[in-house]
Amino acid sequence: MTEAVSTARRSRITPEREAELYEAVLDLLREVGYDALTMDAVAARTRSSKATLYRQWGGKAQLVVKALRHSKRVRTEDIDTGSLRGDLHAIVSLEDDCTMERNSALMRGVAMAMHHNDDLRVAFRDQMVDPEMGGFRQVLQRAVDRGEVRPDCPAIEFLLHMMVGGFATRALLDDQPPTRAFLTSYIDAVVLPALGVQTD
Amino acid sequence: MTEAVSTARRSRITPEREAELYEAVLDLLREVGYDALTMDAVAARTRSSKATLYRQWGGKAQLVVKALRHSKRVRTEDIDTGSLRGDLHAIVSLEDDCTMERNSALMRGVAMAMHHNDDLRVAFRDQMVDPEMGGFRQVLQRAVDRGEVRPDCPAIEFLLHMMVGGFATRALLDDQPPTRAFLTSYIDAVVLPALGVQTD
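The joint structure predicted for all components is written out below.
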């Protein structure tokens, strides 16, 4: 309660306004890419002052990463279907294929920009990779507790690498966007066997 | 023989000169990136005429991809240690960690440029992905013939995704270049178990 009040006082931005602003940032990102995106353009598009944007988010990298994170509606750790296979399938089924294709293009663009933007790389690690690692760790811990995965299974530390690898290499190697059908086959063929989970 | 003669006649470029030219292209690529690389710069750096470059390679995308491919000294299909584990470890041990870090940065830059350059994407698929897929298929076929991998193992079609995924996500998720130590652990923890190969 105290935290909510203090955030409101600091920001004077309603959750609706914040969501609207993040949506505009993602639209701009799709239109011009990270490098060409300016805080001026965000300010103009959202009818905000640049001062407000900087005060609220600190900078372009933080704003973009917050906007990306906001577009994830469900937190990975909240997915709990009762089996690891069910959880991983659910994780890649949160978006329909069309949304996944749009987001895959967006993430590719951002991953590329990270290559030469240190502040974006740091913000991405803090706001996206670390929370996602934490979420996957919880999903895995429940699988270990259920006896599905051995606690000393060496693939445990590579779960996020496997999941992101399937997502990222689909476009790179097959020139096709990742789809639910591709990702669920990949999970069944690669991720679960690597973790020692029986799939048939 | 006939092919070698006709290539020589068409190109009038010796293998030494070709290697020197590819090296210069990779240097330029590291210095300025794909988008800023011009055929003028390649011509100046290598003291060639632009006409020769275009006649020989057709264009920037083809020249860059040929240069990348040329930097691979050993073909994947020629690696044959007698076991799949030996072959995969050998594949990630062709370069020392320092060279691998340099090449990883280079490949990230090219992967990034593929995002918005259709001709680069097509050249990359034809000259890099397809031959590499073929090479891995031969390595796997020998493992199947030795009885190490079941011919109907569903992970077979994802071998390149797994290998490239490990390589690419290391930088993205851990902000560290891929090293031999990382890739061999990843192969032992993920790739071989997914293919049903016993590692202990």
